[in-house]
Amino acid sequence: MAGELILIIEDNEKNRRLARDVLQVKGYRTIESETAEEGLKLAAEQAPALILMDIQLPGMDGITAMKRLKADRNTRSIPIIAITASAMTNNRQAMLAEGFDGYQTKPISLKDFLREVQRVLLAGGNSEE
């Protein structure tokens, strides 16, 4: 697997660059957005195979953006991985309960990050572990 288009919605340039570089080295194509609003537009226009969604974004937060994507018939099937700096144990369950298909904490562990991307892509948006 590789070659899939992945949308990175992340306001921090260093985090965005790291995700982009790691994914591109593994053969994925990437598009990026600094805001949820722009990310929603890109998701509708480009139909990525996966979205990486920062939770803390300026303007609309990542949870609201994810819910809008899941409510839209054109984007609801796109799996979304929550990316957050909160590493509290119950946060993973909370994010999955909100509707995210995967979960990663920042700073990302490259091995865990790539494993989660591959797992969610293979699952096609099913959040089962």
What does this structure look like?
The chain is α/β, with parallel strands linked by helices. It has one domain: Rossmann fold. Helix content is 45%, strand content 19%. It has five helices and five strands. It has helices at residues 13-25, 36-46, 62-71, 89-98, 110-123; strands at residues 5-9, 29-33, 50-54, 80-84, 102-105. It has a five-stranded parallel β-sheet with strand order 2-1-3-4-5, with helices on both faces. The protein is globular, with a radius of gyration of 13 Å. The model has no long low-confidence stretch (mean pLDDT 92).
Secondary structure elements and their pairing?
Elements (H helix, E strand, L loop, with lengths): L4 E5 L3 H13 L3 E5 L2 H11 L3 E5 L7 H10 L8 E5 L4 H10 L3 E4 L4 H14 L6
Parallel strand pairs: 1-2, 1-3, 3-4, 4-5
Helix pairs in contact: 2-3
